[in-house]
C-alpha cells in the first residue's frame, strides 16, 4: 500500500500532442505511454477533437470537473458525459471524437491492456464514514475533492484532494474511510 501525493504525479504531453496528462500511476512503473500494462491518469480537455489511439487498450473515462463533453465513439451513439454521469468504458483503439459542452473539462482515465487485464472504475461519495469492499486485485483510490482518512488491515493514513492510495495485490478486504470527499476507485484484475 502506497500513498501517491498529488504533487508527485507525473505530467506529460498527450500521445497525440494536443494536451497534457497527469499520470497518477502506471504499471510497470517505468512504462512509457506506448508499453504500459495499466495506467490511471487525469487530463484536461480544452478543445474539441479526436482522442489518442491506444492499440490493444480498453479505457474507462469519468468527468472530474467542468460542464461535460459529448463522446462520439465509432460504432456507437454519441454519449453525453458530465460530473454526474457514471464512468464510460470503451475501446481505446477505435476513433473517438470529443465535443465540449461549455469550456474545458478534466477527466479521469483508467486504461488496461486487453490481452490479460480488465478493470472497473466507480465513483464513491464520502460524507462521514464509509466502508468499501476491495476485490482481489490492484486498487487505486483517488481523492478528487475534499479530504479523508482511511484504515486498511491495521494501517492508517490520510488523503487530500488529488492524492491517491495504491493497493497492490489486495486480497478481498474492507477499506474504511472517514471524511468528506468525492473519490474514484479503480480496480485492475487479471482478465
UniProtKB/TrEMBL annotation:
SUPFAM superfamilies reported for this sequence: RmlC-like cupins (SSF51182)
Top-rank taxon, per record: Bacteria
Pfam families in alphabetical order: HutD
Gene3D superfamilies per UniProt: Jelly Rolls
PANTHER family: PROTEIN VES (PTHR37943)
Protein name listed in UniProt: HutD family protein
Species annotation: Rhizobium laguerreae
Amino acid at each position: 500500500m502506497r500513498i501517491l501525493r498529488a504533487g508527485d504525479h507525473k505530467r506529460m504531453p498527450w500521445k497525440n500532442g494536443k494536451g497534457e496528462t497527469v499520470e497518477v500511476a502506471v504499471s510497470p512503473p517505468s512504462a512509457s505511454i506506448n508499453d504500459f500494462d495499466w495506467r490511471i491518469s487525469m487530463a484536461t480537455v480544452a478543445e474539441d477533437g479526436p482522442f489518442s489511439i491506444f492499440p490493444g487498450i480498453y479505457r474507462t473515462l469519468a468527468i472530474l470537473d467542468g460542464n461535460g463533453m459529448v463522446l462520439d465513439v465509432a460504432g456507437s451513439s454519441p454519449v453525453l458525459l458530465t460530473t454526474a454521469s457514471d464512468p464510460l468504458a470503451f475501446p481505446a483503439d477505435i476513433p473517438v471524437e470529443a465535443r465540449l459542452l461549455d469550456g474545458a473539462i478534466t477527466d479521469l482515465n483508467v486504461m488496461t491492456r486487453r490481452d490479460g487485464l480488465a478493470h472497473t472504475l466507480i465513483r464513491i461519495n464520502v460524507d462521514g464514514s464509509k466502508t468499501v469492499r476491495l476485490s482481489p486485485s490492484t486498487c487505486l483510490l483517488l481523492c478528487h475533492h475534499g479530504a479523508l482518512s482511511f484504515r486498511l488491515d491495521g494501517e492508517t493514513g490520510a488523503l487530500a484532494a488529488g492524492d491517491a492510495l495504491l493497493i497492490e495485490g489486495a486480497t478481498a478486504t474492507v477499506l474504511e474511510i472517514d471524511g468528506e470527499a468525492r473519490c474514484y476507485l479503480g480496480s485492475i484484475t487479471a482478465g
